[in-house]
């Protein structure tokens, strides 16, 4: 995402450590995997009332959105799509009847997204009928087949989940032998660490989990979790919400001790619940075969040409013309204040937490021990102030731990999790002094007119309602290229104001407000001060000729120590002119480089 | 209140770009400065510390302020006014110059207490002469003399009026640093210190007279004690950045526009300089070259030229070649800066824990545009009354990525503005659900436990009311300087003047500033003990976690040079993992 910084070149030395806040390390924890096991019986293809999509159609839309969201936000996760209750069978050696592996356990890609698209809607139902058909159901065989999917994977899997999508609460129609077999296979799977969820869909007469599925699915993480009491999903939106809540393994960034006082350490989990998704970095491919190439970075000595180990280097900063040298590990250890953990400083009334105390996305902190739960329960109108050290050698930050109570929606799905939000608080250095303008304030009638305008343009904000148009466009482009589409799919940019709608709703209000606040000759869109126009716009006015500085002049500046008086472009030109290599573009870096060169 | 800075550092940021200060430090090194009560640091040592801390600050700030150093009571005499027996034992140690590490070293190694005494008024005259001669024909925003003395020499007050007149004429300001407070001295010293001598009492009277004549109202506020100054100057002051104005137009539909200017108000401040890598032997940057090579994923690791590579992206399992040119053509584009209202929503609909981005903007009307001021005020007040916010599309500049954000109304005594903070996109959110903490059969805290926690919270409240009902915050995070940079500058300074010594321990004041305030720590002892008894404690350390952190941190200890051999193997070890 664009930061203010991007334009000021201030942000080049962002500590790598801080960026990796997402903290998910696949190297050490293995891959997440998810198998969609979808009922393909005839019942799944029955359209709902009022043109509601069929359960099968809804499931395919869900699978598609999981595929695309995995590609965007967790592109290392493995996903599979398997149908049961089919006429046809497709699995290794076709040893399992009525089980159709549509997609093996693998990374989802463009082709797979397209495949799933092909199964959507009326046409999709037709395709499904032709390729797989609906036949006998043997859930036991299907589960067995899925367990093979997991065991065939050579990668280390950290989290294994299987979601069953069905609208039939008695899949074997009372065949107790098949029921028993399915239960056995399910418990085998669960024993190998697979979590089985049921995404049950609306069925006329209601879906009775207790008839069969209660013995198949995994017990909830916690006895209080309401997993099984949930109503079946009748709407796509509900299903998507439910799938989304389950599909991603919650992974803690850290499990830390919260220190309440000396010798009183209690465990908490630290999670990231909002993190800006960014366009991934480009990778380099070999031109001849489009295969990724590996990059190796080497350090070598300019004079001798020999390779250098990091221990052959040191770190320097230059202040007032003096080079200050440190070892690499000294630079690291300077950042160390205390061991990783949270240290309770005390409590403050809630009103002491100011709106503008914001530096970066908050973390979520979940109590793992009773004492923290106790503190959580007792925090009423107060927040806890803590010192937070994320990892070794990370300097401390202060967090306001704001308690959040659990909230569930009508469908018993959790919309607010119980725990603390950890809000990062700014230090003195992070708050800037601003020169606030002294301006007249609005009169009551002016304010009232604006209230009418605000009233006309009210809407209900939902945090998950806006997609990032930059990311969406990027992935649509890639999708189009991968699938050889003529043009990428159109994206709807929800960040654009709907100007027509706004104008229409406001009617004459905008003019009325303008009449109240602006004099007749005032143009709020005009320029306040004549701005320098770019050369082209000004009708080809000549570029200001560059004034080259003589070396003596420059040396003079260096000696007097007043290079700082020169502007950045002039300094840059001077660097070019004297062949000074600069790594950064900050003014100070330019000055240091010039000084170093000319005092040699 | 003690000084947060010497006058060289402008308190206002609206200073003109070329503004600089000329400042003369005038340090009394006379023999009485070495006298102190047993167990107390002599005034000379304190004054020297004040100077060191200040110069160090100036060096790291790298501004254009110039500094001179005059010693009086010194064994030698070196100044322009010295003639016959006049202006003796006053030595101009350093002319006006931009301070550097050499000056710091000189202060550390060459400035010692002398065995003479000199009249501080004479020294003041030498400083004035120095300032006037060396600033002649040049522009300075401020001329300032800093006098550090114990006032323990007899002074002749007959010249006082002439000196005051000259100070005023030349526009020179004065600051005094004394071993004792300006108001608490007299014959009854407050802290059991030594009573002031007759000379000191007389000197103090003259000091007051000078300061009051320069500034009748606030003159005495520029007289400080050494100890307060050391404490305040220990904090490396950040270099003020000039706030960058972001002029734009707030739009509501196509027919309502308000001119605005945005400023970054809160943002994680980073140091101006970064570390660069040099050769360990020569300390030269140019002796090292970083070289990136590309190789195929085959057994031979065949190297290929950069020109033979193209750009691509992963799309799940697919690798899609996507050239820069194509990408630029196909990417999402914005046509210019924007602060466009999409609509308005209740403030309660916006969750502050979902704020994203790394900054807070404050949005004002342009300072010379009162019509825009009125219009924006109308919006701010309407939103404030209705408890609503504007949801806006924000684009910094042409082809910048669009953001979605909330503009909150903010009404202060002195100004009104909108506070803009970025909101998440759908892709940024992780919807995790967690086991319930209430209605939890496994564990619900008992009444007994809850009341123990309640009394702990009461004992640990950091905001308290004093006798007059004024609320006092004992731990203001936004008043603590970022400890990372304090420590960094402490180490940089130490290493600069002691290149071969190990890094110093952390400054005690910094450690204290990051801890639970003593009063609270004492108060909460008993409630903590009770809490300990009410809750069974278990130290949960899972094996798995330990292993993970070891894997994570494993290679960071390799750079210490303790084991080069392991290091040699580690890069391929890392690539192997990536490959897998």
UniProtKB/TrEMBL annotation, chain A:
Gene Ontology terms: biological process: DNA recombination; double-strand break repair via nonhomologous end joining; telomere maintenance
EC number: 3.6.4.12
Catalytic center residues: 27 (schiff-base intermediate with dna)
Every SAP domain range: 563-598
Protein name: DNA helicase
One cellular component term from this protein's GO annotations in UniProt: Ku70:Ku80 complex
MF annotations from Gene Ontology: ATP binding; damaged DNA binding; DNA helicase activity; double-stranded DNA binding; hydrolase activity; telomeric DNA binding
Skewed-composition ranges (Basic and acidic residues): 1-11, 541-556
Location of the protein in the cell: Nucleus
Region (Disordered): 1-26, 521-558
Catalytic activity: ATP + H2O = ADP + phosphate + H(+)
Family: Belongs to the ku70 family.
Record domain Ku: where: 305-442
From TrEMBL, chain B:
A cellular component annotation (GO) from this entry: Ku70:Ku80 complex
Major place of residence: nucleus
SUPFAM superfamilies assigned to the protein according to its UniProt record, in alphabetical order: SPOC domain-like, vWA-like
Entry-linked Pfam families: Ku (PF02735), Ku_C (PF03730), Ku_N (PF03731)
Keywords assigned: ATP-binding, DNA damage, DNA recombination, DNA repair, DNA-binding, Helicase, Hydrolase, Nucleotide-binding, Nucleus
Domain of life, source organism: Eukaryota
GO biological process per UniProt: DNA recombination; double-strand break repair via nonhomologous end joining; telomere maintenance
Mitochondrion in keyword set: no
GO molecular function, one term: double-stranded DNA binding
Database matches in PANTHER family: KU AUTOANTIGEN DNA HELICASE, X-RAY REPAIR CROSS-COMPLEMENTING PROTEIN 5
Protein name from the UniProt record: X-ray repair complementing defective repair in Chinese hamster cells 5
Source organism of the structure: Oncorhynchus kisutch (Coho salmon)
